Structure formats: structure tokens, C-alpha cells
Amino acid sequence: MRMTNATMYARVLAGDASCNGRFFTGVLTTGIYCLPSCKARKPKPGNVRFFPTCEAARVAGLRACKKCHPDDFARGADPVLEDVETLVAEVRAAPRSFSDTRAIVRRSGFGATRIFELFRQHYHTTPADLLLRARLAVAKTALLSSDAGLAEVAGDSGFESLSVFHEHFRQHHGLTPAAYRELGAARAFALALPPGYALGYLRRALSRDLHSVTERLTGDVYTGAVQLSDGPAVLTLRFAAATVQAEISRGSAVEAHAIAAGLLGLDQDAAAFARLANRLGLARLVAGRAGLRIAQTPSVFDGLLWSIIGQQINFPFACLLKRRLIERAGAPLADGLYAPPTPAAVAALEPADLLPLQFSRQKADYVVQTARLIASGQLDLAALRPMSATRAARTLLAVHGLGPWSVNYLMMRALGFPDCVPLGDTGVTSGLQSLLKLEERPDVDATRRLMAMFAPHRSLATAHLWQFNRPIPT
User: Fold this and answer.
1) Fewer beta carbons within 10 Å, N or C terminal of the chain?
2) pLDDT at 1 over 60
3) CA pair distance 239, 222, nearest whole angstrom
């Protein structure tokens, strides 16, 4: 459908990245043409001319913007993103080579302000936080693959002291480096909860579907069927005020730890978001739940299935469809639980197999075809986690059946990116309306503008908005 000048100008004011490539914005007073999403100062409508291609803009005598690089976008290249990704790969491969943030800035070739902006935009983090996580990742590998002493592991990973290493490791992973090393020969382990952890909200998240066939919460005991690299297992978590006792029925406790830590959201910076909300004068958003975290799905595929199934239907019906799919393609385990289906199991189905389960034809096709992409290796879910948020979003948006809501939901709930907003989500818009006392629920553009104040913690902001109109759990 052809867009009018008024529509295109509105998209420019909204900074709508989904219009990138559909048209290009020429600013006659500066002689520059840009992408609709360009972060430069918005031009006045009388100074704007729209072009279908970069070539048309150049014929009109305009030159490409050096901030948004429209020519690169048009030919599928993104050299600035590629430079940042190369830098991040170097940091992750050898964090010891970077003594601090200043070393990252020097290596980047950008100024400090610009590199901070690029890290926030593409990785949803700061250089300092990315460096810390790179050090922890190297340390985890060393703890499991070598007999080196803890002090040596700390030094080789780039930590300035054993005490600093110990503090950060326990904060992000819920156990000490020594306890993590012992996971290789364990089936049970204990995770420490951070102070102020909102355990009531975790219980609510883990019991959303009272009829789930993959997980159940009975009192303070959670039992969930999970897929490990060598097959299904049952993960049991026993909650207490300050600790969680975890046990895996079989397989790798290292994998079980990653799943449990994700369910608990241990590496999310809930305190930083609470401070941001208070600075914004919105303390009521976090009142009674400052320690709220987002429970990550046990696997990326689980999150992907939910993001497709949950599109444009109510929650109870989405739960029903998910249960029926699991019973159809999952594997029965003990005590009435089913192991979540693997991509191969879903890929072996035909879309017609899901129609008697009340899937729409379109939804059935999306589920099966996406599973086939994964099973064939065309969509590598494991490769999404280390990607930049920008690259991960582009990869997922290219999958037929995944739109902006699905992709942002998946990135937030399954991949752990901290600055996502599932635009169009009714829980988010209802929460914003109540929080900001708006006369009506904001549309997508207004939601994008209003949520910008919560950057770089928009995922946690989303989680708080989902809970804003609900009672505080006991």
C-alpha cells in the first residue's frame, strides 16, 4: 500500500525502524537523506522530501547521513554494527586483555560517549557490564575444564582480586566459584537469593497455568520437566526465604544450574531499575516488588513456541493450545509430567495435525514451519544468545510468523535482553495508562515514546507494568 507524505512524516517523527528501506527521508535544508529511524534532530515538515531509493535521493543532489548510514542499510551492510560486534567478540575471547572500560573505548576507535551509545543500542548494556560478564564466562569455562586454583582462575579471567571475583560470581550465579566447580559431579545444589528477592512474584510466574503438563508448583516446591542436551529430565526447586535447593533427576547439573538461574532471573539488575523508577518519580511502579525479576523460559524453543502460540489470543486459550501441543509432540515422564517437545518432534508434524487441537491454520503453519527451520539448522537458536540484540532481532524478524511483539517477547523472556518492549501488548498499555493516569491507552507510537524513559531497563519495566494493576502476592 502506498504511503502518503503525511504518513511517512509521522513514521519519521516516531523513529519507526520498520519503515527503514520502505522510503528515505531527504532534508532539503541540510542536503542529507536518512533512514526513517535516524536519531538526528527531526526536520520540519516543510523541509522534507521523501524518496523511494537512495539513488533517487542522490539524483536530487542529497548526500547520505553519516549517523544512520542509509546507503549501507540499502545494500544490506551495517559497518558500524559490524565494528561493534568485532570489538565485543574480542572482549569476550580475551577479557584479560581489557583492563577496564577505557581500554575498550581506546580499542573501539570511537569516542567514549559514542561507544556507550552503541553498546546500549546493540547489546542493551554498558562496556563495563559486558566486560564483567565476559570475565565471568571465561571463569566458568576454566572452573569446569581445569584444575587451576581459584586465584589463578580469577587472574586469568581479568579480575583484580579473588574477593572481587567471588563477589561477582555469587551475585550473578547464586553460588560460589568453588560450588560451581562441583556441579560437574553433582545432582543437587543450593542457590543464594539476592536481598529483597520478590519470591511471591516468582511463585505467581511459575503457576500461571494451573493445568500445565510441564511444570507444577505445590507450596514452595516447583517441579518442571526440561530438555537437556542428552534428553529430558525433571528439575525440582525448593524455595526458602534466602536460598533455593535445586535437584536434577538425571543429566548435567551444569545445564540444570543455567535453567534454574534463568528461572530465578539472578543476573538481572532489579536494583538498578528500582533506582531509575525512583529518579523518574515513579516509585509506585516498583512499590512492593523492587526485587521483581523476569523468569526466563527453560529453553529458547519453549519461549519461541509461546511467542507464536500467544499471538492475538487470550491467555487461557494460549495455555490450552500449548498444553495440547505438548501432549501431542512431547514425551510423557513420571507423575503426569510431559517433557517439552523438541524442535525435531514438532517439525515432524504437519500443520493439519494441529487443526483438531483448535490451532488456526495460520498459527499451525507458523509453529511447524518455524520448527522445521530450527531442525534443519537454518535457524540456530543457540547462536542467538551471544548475538547483539540488533542482530538477534533482525534474524528473528526474518522468520515468517514472527512480528515485533513476538520477537521482543522472545528476546526478553528467553534470551535475556534487558531493553525490550513487546509493542502492542495490552498489559503494557494498560499498565502505562494506570501508572501515568492517561485518559486512554497509548497506541504503539505513544508506547514507544513513553517506554523510552525506562531505557536501558525496558524489559523489567514491562514486567512491572504487567503486574501494576494486580494485587501484591502473599
Assistant:
1) N
2) no
3) 8
